[in-house]
Structure formats: structure tokens, C-alpha cells
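Lab meeting, action items carried over

1. Structure of the four-component assembly. Owner: GW. Status: complete.
Input record:
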Amino acid sequence: MSAVKCIGILTSGGDAPGMNAAIRAVTRSAIYNGMSVKGIYRGYKGLITDEIVDFKTQNVSNIIQRGGTILKTARCEEFKTPEGRKLAYDRLMEHGIDALVSIGGDGSLTGARIFAQEFNYPIVGLPGTIDNDLFGTDVTIGYDTALNTIMECVDKIRDTATSHDRLFFIEVMGRDAGFLALNGAIASGAEAAIIPEISMEKDQLAEMIETGFRKSKNSSIVLVAESEVTGGAMGVAERVKKEYPQFDVRVSILGHLQRGGSPTAQDRILATRMGVAAIDALLDDQRNVMMGIQNDEIVYVPFSKAIKNDKPINRDLLDTLRVSSI
Amino acid sequence: MSAVKCIGILTSGGDAPGMNAAIRAVTRSAIYNGMSVKGIYRGYKGLITDEIVDFKTQNVSNIIQRGGTILKTARCEEFKTPEGRKLAYDRLMEHGIDALVSIGGDGSLTGARIFAQEFNYPIVGLPGTIDNDLFGTDVTIGYDTALNTIMECVDKIRDTATSHDRLFFIEVMGRDAGFLALNGAIASGAEAAIIPEISMEKDQLAEMIETGFRKSKNSSIVLVAESEVTGGAMGVAERVKKEYPQFDVRVSILGHLQRGGSPTAQDRILATRMGVAAIDALLDDQRNVMMGIQNDEIVYVPFSKAIKNDKPINRDLLDTLRVSSI
Amino acid sequence: MSAVKCIGILTSGGDAPGMNAAIRAVTRSAIYNGMSVKGIYRGYKGLITDEIVDFKTQNVSNIIQRGGTILKTARCEEFKTPEGRKLAYDRLMEHGIDALVSIGGDGSLTGARIFAQEFNYPIVGLPGTIDNDLFGTDVTIGYDTALNTIMECVDKIRDTATSHDRLFFIEVMGRDAGFLALNGAIASGAEAAIIPEISMEKDQLAEMIETGFRKSKNSSIVLVAESEVTGGAMGVAERVKKEYPQFDVRVSILGHLQRGGSPTAQDRILATRMGVAAIDALLDDQRNVMMGIQNDEIVYVPFSKAIKNDKPINRDLLDTLRVSSI
Amino acid sequence: MSAVKCIGILTSGGDAPGMNAAIRAVTRSAIYNGMSVKGIYRGYKGLITDEIVDFKTQNVSNIIQRGGTILKTARCEEFKTPEGRKLAYDRLMEHGIDALVSIGGDGSLTGARIFAQEFNYPIVGLPGTIDNDLFGTDVTIGYDTALNTIMECVDKIRDTATSHDRLFFIEVMGRDAGFLALNGAIASGAEAAIIPEISMEKDQLAEMIETGFRKSKNSSIVLVAESEVTGGAMGVAERVKKEYPQFDVRVSILGHLQRGGSPTAQDRILATRMGVAAIDALLDDQRNVMMGIQNDEIVYVPFSKAIKNDKPINRDLLDTLRVSSI
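Predicted assembly:
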């Protein structure tokens, strides 16, 4: 039998749709396996400041369909210091919490890893981030919903772009990873995507213009990942206005609504599977691993691997986008 | 029997969801009544440049659910000149078009009015604008869809606002009319709305702050109509950041997606009723009138009235918003 | 100052989207006006069995966007008896509840009316029903959402109907009132609607067939209100299969999903306005009235009027549907 | 250089969301690679009856977001006979069509396989079916959209189920494959799923009842795959009503709307990738293969394998559902 009798659960970093489905599955699977569950509010911050409550199955009823996180989330500078982490550890001991399930992105798992090593404390992580930029899992919780949200927004903008023969630059999230911009462009039938993986290498906009971009079309849509290098949608649009003064150029920045919304089926199923797997992992004495999904099977990814490595985009998709939008 | 044997139909100005439903109803009702129909592309511009095609019932099949306008729309400086309007008139004569149905907002109807007077030519208008700012009709085609789009976006942003205890300023359309901002705020459970009708009178933000805005709440959402007076969401947020440095303030500008999307039931029904009524009006020798809806009955509103008068907001709704968001 | 210091609030009968927005507005407006609020679960049943809890503003946070009713609803045979109502009255006295706000349809208001008269007890009602069949209000809470849900379902079915050249009969709610079927048909571009108001008078299907229904079209959709007279969609489809064996006929019964879903902007605004108005009415010593909306203004409708009179459909809409679907 | 200079494209069998995205990608990729394209309407039936038109890039503009299939689809008994297939072959020759891209499910690929062998004719297939029951591909075009449609419907029904403390049996598609029912149940937080893979082995309902199904919950939802064995949702509900007369049991049959709707991002991306890959396959002299996706890579699956083998469900998901719905 596992030594884990009581788990704590928290969400950390940027919120992502599906986090509530994960909280629900972790809670219920823990209770199903005879553990008790403590919900920790506002991530590591609430752990330090003792925002911790008992969680029963009813606490997670009727939340699978909701965006955001009922446990809320917050940034926590204090947890980055040894003193802060000591305070966090003391809370866990006070509440009799034997292991922690942490749901979040890169920063959250980095914090989890340091803490786990410092105190030899069992933590398992769930990858919750719309950016899909964690290594070791084919997909992260929240990515599919954000992708569909982007697509639906672009569908709406296309209505008006087509009606007016306009050229739209639409900025989406993904400062370091082009998954949302590239796949969002394919899904919405956009003409091009400008993504960070490529903008380091070459000038995507110049290439678009050279290859006769927009010769045959009256209206066009380009998805642009937010970026200091390109200046995002605003920066790109400014350049185009100079080069093509005849174009009726517009900019739209989708912003925070990309984080919200009721999660898609894929995100809910993924979050539920990973939530159940997290408890299985603890029962199996696993620790310091992130749940991942590879080829539709759950895998355990060491925190160190998930954080350190970059997840590459599939470059074939650049061709797919180009060919399908002629 | 009516003298009108052939009508032309066009959409002009900013596109609005429901315009296609209107095009469908006008076309079918005209054909039902024995008229022939010409679709004119790109508004008054296409009328001048002769982008005119025959429309049968099939041309408007399967479009009721689509956003934008299949007839496209464009601004047209030339139509503002007597020479341009003469060219337009010549085209109508060449095609044997006896009357025009023009779907659009304030600018479109203004153009229609001048043209109708200059050439003693029968035109009927349909109010198509998301801003809902035409006098003489309780509601315009596109307003209900835009209102729902805004609400759905705010619902998504609330997910993340609540997860992070943030204060959001969300900018919506309506430079001269606060219908979208005020009703959008009530519908989405936002805490306040900053609207043009009031910002001329007093400083809504100062008042919000004085009355203890946001004392009891962790996260808040304020809808702000785009405005030169207030600076829109950006301008308001800058002021709040200075006054309340402790708040985690964010801005979101919804932008062009407010114009798109599949129309709601109300917009499709309204557009269909108005489209059928437009042909009834022509059969009844009406001209130079906009279709309006008042108390769920179709009315004819002279262009002059619809354009010149401001439609007031219902100020009771300001109280409704305040009371319901404590 | 009003004698009402504490109100009870309940939802009764079939649930309708927007009920939560109404609960939120009633609760907050009452608190804003210095009253205390008791939430009564499961309608009159919970009143009798004492499922009554204190409601603060937080109890109604973040519910405006949710379908169903957080207060739940139930049928209650006991409340139809004098003994049951006496028990209900005793509970109200025990809890110090001075007035009741009841949200529901015909049955709920009938119960409210009898109770109010029997015990000389102040009750105000809110019209909450997707069927839109209450007299004295242009529209009821839940109707607009149900109409949009129906339209979206028909939009989906049209995708497959068109792909297969099929004739679909789709059954919607409204046993006694054709609002959903008729307006749903116009909104979704359906070819016809079979509604109770007309099926008493004549054989709508026979007429459709006689007038050459479906001569010019490959696929068609007919909305049918549930009905004992016509047999609903199943009954109508059986007859068509016999008369037109060459048609590829399909039936779809939308069923309970018509009651659910996040409320539309119109329903949320209506529910919020009516909720605030209900407290205003109590402050103004009104009682035994239903909140109604007429010409965009709140009105008070005596229970007796709201219940006894039938709300007529606008028969012009039958022509609108016929003309727009040729 | 490839011998293929002109391709034909058709959709066959039940329509599925994403088919239009596939048509768009096939058409554009073919043109990009110098081929000409013929659109064949109504599947093999239209091939025989010569419903064949030239397709340019504009023919597939603005269709990626639409449900159904612009090429329509039909059953075709004649194509099951050698005579019918000979007629089909003659048409292909007349139009100079060198290869065929067929999008559809099991039946469509079976027909394609026989035809390809009989006439030594190059065909590539795309798996288009919401049931996800084709071997050799992790997922089929249309499945993700149908899964999300089911989930959204169950979300709506849960609103009313929860409000009324009811037990709902909801019937979904998948006569031979439980993917939609099982994953739909996990995604929507349903309590159980009754699926064909298991109903052959044992009585799932009896087991649910024995294991104390619904002891701790007021409302419950069970997804039931359509089935002759269990009688579908109706059959299961009848049995429950007898065993548990105290439950308030309701049935909902989702029906044809599961086939419709704008495709999700995953379906559009999958369809676009497979559409581009189909032309790549022809350029590479592949034939008689279905495009599949495995571990996010495109693979070629021989028709014989795709048709003959059953795709198994992941039985771990049964545990996931059970544990997460306690």
C-alpha cells in the first residue's frame, strides 16, 4: 500500500481550460483510492499563506465544463526563495499532506522540481498551458481549446474581411512556440503564419511578399505569434502598410480571451486521463514526474526533461499551410 | 399593380451579421411578387463600376446562417459627388432597375436619401449596423449578434480574470452609442460600463472610484466603448493604474470580431421580416423610407428621421447594472 | 419604508435558461435595498420541506452565464392542497420571510396566486419558461435561448440534410404555443412550421402538399411543435412517407437540450431587469403581480391576467416564413 | 513526373464535418502540383450519372468552416454491380480523369477497393466518418467534431438534469463502435457509458445497478450507443424504470445533429493534412491506400487493412470514466 494518505492539489501560472477537469479527476481518483484531498488556492502563494481547504467529491461536481480554475492561480515570488519554500513545506507538514499534485506550465514545474529536490518531497505535475510548449507530451491541457477559440475568432473576422476585401493580421499567443499560430492558421484557412521558430531564422514577411503573397486573392488573413522579434501583428502590419500602401490592412489582437472558455472534448478527456494517472503514479511511488501523453498512451516525464527541452513544431505543416491556401 | 418590375439590392458601410438573411428575404420576396432581382456587389462602388448580376432564389440559398455579406461592401467616395451619383443612376437605367433596396447604417442611408431626392428614384432602406444607433427602429440588424459575441468574449475573459483576481477593461464598439457597452455589461455580469452618452456629461471612472468601486470583489470587468473622450479601454486603464497601483490591471480590445459570426435568431428573424417588408413597401409605392421595428411591428421611417435623430439609451439600465453587480 | 425586510426566492416548474440571472438580480437588488434573502431549494416542495438557506451576494456570484437553476426546481403535488400550502406558510413565518419572489411558468404562477390570496401574502412572479406562453409580457425568460438552441441544431441538421437531399421533420417544444416552432423555422431558414395554433383549424400538412411543397428543392426542413393533434414530428413524417414514398424522410426530436445552455444576452438582460424590478415592486407595495416587458418597458401584470389569457402568435409571420422560403 | 494529370474527387456514404476541408485541400494541392481537378457530385452515383464539373481554387474558397459536403453524398446500389462500375469507369475515361480521391467511411472504401482492382485504376481514400471506426488511423475526419457536439448537447441536458434531479439516458451514434459514447461520457462528466464492444460480453446495465450506481448522486447521465442488442437509450431506460421506479428517468436521442456543425480545429487540420497527403501519395505512385494518421504522422493504409480490421477501444478509458465519476 502506498504511503500517501493525503494529497494537496494546486494550479499555478497562467490558467488554461481543462484545469478544472484535471482538479476533478485528481480529487475523485484520490478519494476512490482511499486518500484525502486538500485544495490549495492561488498556487504556491496560497500554500505559503495557508489557503487550504478539505476537498470532497462534491467540491468538484459540475466543474468539468468550466474554464479557468476553481482553485485560482497566482504568481509567487516568495516560492522562488529558499525561505518561501521552507514556509510552504511547513504548511504541508501542518496539514499532513504527503504529496502534491501541481497543474501548470513551465514555471510551475520548475518550482515543483526545485521544491521536490530540496525537501525530498513527492510531487507529480500535470502540463496545463495553452501554449503547448512542454517537452515529453504530445499535447498540453488547454491547447486544443485555445486553438479552437482562435479558429472561431478568425472565422468571425473572415466574415468581415471577405465582405470588405481586407488584409488582416491577427495576433495570437505563443511568444516562444508557434503551435497556436501555425495550427490556428491551417484550421482557419488563413493565408500564412508568422511564428517564433522561423522568425529567428529568416524574415517570413519578406518571403511572403517576394513569393507573390496575395496576388490572387481579395482578402487575406495572416496569424502572427506575439513576439519581440517581429513586433507581433502591429509590427508586421506597419511594415506591410509601407510596402503595399494599396492594401486595406487591419490588425486584431485576440488577447486574454484565448485563455478562457469551456474546454473542448479533447482537453477534458486529456485532463481527466492525466488526473487519474497522477494518482496512479503516486500509488506506484513515482515522484518528480510530469504526466504526458504520447501516441495516446500516458507516460511519465521527469520534470528535468519536460522543462529543459524545447518541443519542436512539425515543419511539414508549413508546407501544408502554404499548399492549402493558394 | 406596382410599377416596380426589377429591383437592385446592395449592402453598404460596415458589414453586420444578418445582412445575408436580409438579402435572402428581399430576393425571395421580390421573386415571389413577380419582380426580377439584381445583386449589386460592393455597395454604391459596385453600382458605379457595374458589378451587377442576376439573382435567382438559388443565389440566396443556404446563406441565412452566414455572417458578413455575400454582396460584399465598400466605402465609396465617388458616390458622395454629383458626378458619381449620376454614373450610378445611369447604371440603374441600363440594367432596367426600377427601385433599390439598400442595407446599411447611417452613411448608407444618407447616401440613399440624397440619391433618391436628386433623381426622384425609389429607394427603401434596411437598418444594418451592429451599433444599433439608428432612430426610428427599436433595434438594427446585427446588434443582437454583436451583443452576444461581446458577451461570449467577456464570459471567456471572466474565466481567466476570476482565476487571477484581475481587473479587466474590455473595449467594445460604439463610438457614438453605448448600447453594446451598457447592455453587454449587464449581460455579462460586468461591474460597470463607460459609455459615450455619459462621458460627455461627467467622469464615469472618477465616480466609480469615489463610490468605492471594487471594494468587495477580487476580480472585476469594466466594458468601455471606444472613444476619443475617454481614450477607450487603454486610456481608462492608464488612469486606473496610476490611482490604484495595487490592482492587477489588464486591457482587451475586442475589435473586428464583433462584426462577424453567424447571426442570432433575433437578427435572422428581424432581417427576414424587414426584407419581406421592404418589398411590400415598394408594392405599396412607398419610397425613401427605412424599415423599422417598433413594439414588434414593422414601421416605415423616413430616411430624414432615421438619420438626423439620436436614439437615446434607456438610462434605467445604468441603475440595473449598478444594482445587479454589487 | 417598505415593510418587507426579508424575501424568499424560488424557481418552480420546468427550468429555463436565465433563471440564474434572475436569482442573481433579485438577490443583489434585495440586499442593495437593505433586505435579507433566503434561497428556497426545489420550489414549493423545498418550501414545505424546509430546504431554505441564507443568500448573500457571493451565493449568486459567477452564475449569470449558467443554464438551469442553482435553486433547483421540482413539481409539488402537496402545494396543490390547502394542507400543503398551510405547511408552506408556516415555514415562511418560521424563517421570517415577508415576501416571496417566484420564478416559473404558468403552473408556478397559478400556485403563487392561490397561495397569495389564501394567506394574504405578498408574492411577485417572474415569467420563466422557454415556451413564451404567458400573457402580458412580450417575451419570457428562457425563450430567446431556446430559440437560438433550436436554430443552432437545425443549422447542424441542415448540413447533413443538404448533403443528402433529405426531407427532415424536426420536433421542438411548445405543446400549446407555436412561438418556438414558427420563429425557429424563420430563423433557421426552414421550409415550413406546423404549430398548435393552426393545427386546430386546419390540416397544415395537407395544405403544404397541395401547394406543391418541395417542388423546387432538393432538401427541406419542417419544424413541428410537439402535439397530440398532429402526432408531432413522428406523426407528420409517417403521413408524408405514405403520400410521397420517393422522399428520403428523416425525423429528429430535439427534446430536453432545448431547456439547457448558457443564456443569450437577451435572456440575461431580461432576467436581470425583471429581477431588479421585482424588488422595486415589493418596495412599492405591489403584490400578486408578474413582471412583464412590453415595448422594452417593465410592466406589472396581475397573476390572474397572465395565467388566464392566451398569448397569440403574430400571424403575419406565417406569410413571412412562406415567402422567405420559396 | 507523375502520370496523373487530372484527378476526380468525391464524397460518399454518411457526411462528416471536415469533408469540405478535405475537398479544399485535395483541390488546392492538386492544382499546386499542376493537375486539373473534377468535382464529382453525389458520390459514386453522380460518377455514373455524370454530375461532374471542373474545380478551380475558387470552388473551394470559404468552405473550410462549413459542415456537410459541398459535393453532396448519396448511397449508390448501382455501384455495387459490375455493370454500374463499368459505367463509372467509362465516365472517368470520358472526362480524362486519371485518378480518384474518395472521401468516406467503410462502405466507400470497400467500393473504392473493388473498383480499383477491377479496372486497375488508381484511387486513394480519406477516412471521413464520425464513428472513428476505421483501422489504421488513430482518428477519422469528423470524429472530433461529433464528439464535441455530443459533449455540448450533454452539457445542456445536464443543466436541466441537475435542476430536476433526473436520470438521463442519452443515445449517441456508433452502432458498432463505442468511441463516441465512451469518450463523450468522459468529456461530459457523465456517470456511465453503454457501448457495443462491451454489450456483447456482459450486461453493463445490470453491473451498474449491482455496483450501487447512483447511490450518492441526485442526478445522473448515461450515454448509450445506438444498438439492437441493448435497445439503445429507450431499451435501457425501460429496464431501469422497472428496476428503479423511484427514479425520474428521461431519454434523449441526439440523432442527426451529431453529423453536422462547423468542424473543430482538429478535424480541419486533419482533413487538410490528409488532403495534401493524398495528392503527395498519387505523385508518389501510391494507389489503393487510405490516408491515416498515427502518432501525428501521415501513413498509407492499404484499403484491405483499413476495412477488414476492427479498431479496438482503449479499455483503460472504462476505468477512467468509472473513477472520475464517483
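2. GW to write a short summary for the group page. Key points so far: Chain D touches chain A through 47 residues (CB under 8 Å). The CA atoms of residues 20 and 63 of chain D lie 6 Å apart.
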